[in-house]
Amino acid sequence: MTEKSDGKTEKVSRRKIITTGLATVAGVSGLMVAAKIADRHGLLAPDHGGILGAGEALTYGAMRVLTAHHSMAREFNRSEISKIHPVNGPHPKSESYQRMANGNFQDYRLAVDGLVARPTSFSLDELKRMPSRTDITHQACEEGWSFIAEWTGVPLSYVLNYVGTQPHAKWAVFHTFQTDWWDSLDMPEVLHPQTLVAYNMNGDDIPLDYGAPVRLRVPRQLGYKSLKFLTSITITDSLKNVGDGQGSPSPAAGYSWYAGI
Ligand SMILES: Nc1nc2c(c(=O)[nH]1)N[C@H]1C(S)=C(S)[C@@H](COP(=O)(O)O)O[C@H]1N2
Ligand SMILES: [Mo]
Question: Residue 101 in contact with residue 224, Cβ under 8 Å?
């Protein structure tokens, strides 16, 4: 991009590509050409071929450039924690989940595998012994309601450093106790300091309906990216062969893979 390796120069030039370069090209030759340029710069969302097409890809690309330098989700005071926390998607009723819950999740393991040096399964205690972070953040559901809560967990970046994510990794894919609820994040979101593998909500173990024993918190995106009841994380350099190849079941349901707010 530039001959200099200093971050500031790079930032300006990447931003320029999006705000002037892409807009100009789009005006002249149409959005698909712009999307191709975005792809060349690693700024194409996995659902770019979805119902929203190239425009969606460019929204993602532009947002990624604007948020690449660790813009933080807003944090709140304890006094602002909501009185009511609506649930969207109660805890699984499957026997395997119920059995885990009845045993206080002693047998729970979070598997981390794929493009990592040391695939590992972590118990709840092991996760709790890692460095933790607590954030009071807003969670907004695409259905229109939201709440503020305090979440404690281990930064996802710490877990992935621990297992040794390989340099060519591009995505983290998350699976849950519910086969129809899985999703993925790109590396900027994975490495963001507020992206947590959370095990505590408002000072207590996360209640079953809110994602026990462990859920994602992705406070810069809509609630549906904050997967509950996590079981595994797989690191990959391609989403082509994961599910329908769009990085998440959301695009097929009419919601975009990138849900930045
Ligand atoms: N495994 C799983 N994760 C999930 C869901 C779900 O039903 N199952 N619902 C999602 C949606 S749409 C939202 S808005 C939030 C809701 O989290 P809450 O129930 O703690 O409010 O979790 C998200 N993560
Ligand atoms: Mo949601």
Answer: no
Average pLDDT of 34-52?
74
Minimum mean pLDDT among 33-47, 69-83, 98-112: which range? 33-47
Nearest CA to ligand 1 atom 18: 87
Domains of the chain, start order: 2-66 (no CATH), 78-253 (3.90.420.10)
Helices 53-67 and 7-16: angle between axes, nearest 10 degrees: 160
Closest C-alpha to ligand 1, atom 19: 87
DSSP label at residue 260: B
Please report which confidence band the pLDDT of residue 232 belongs to, taking 50, 70 and 90 as the band edges: very high
Residue nearest to atom 21 of ligand 1 (CA): 87
Distance CA 261, CA 211 (A): 22
**Ligand 1 cavity residues, CB under 6 Å:** 86-89, 141, 176, 178, 181, 210-211, 223-224, 226-229
User: Quick check: pTM over 0.90?
Assistant: no
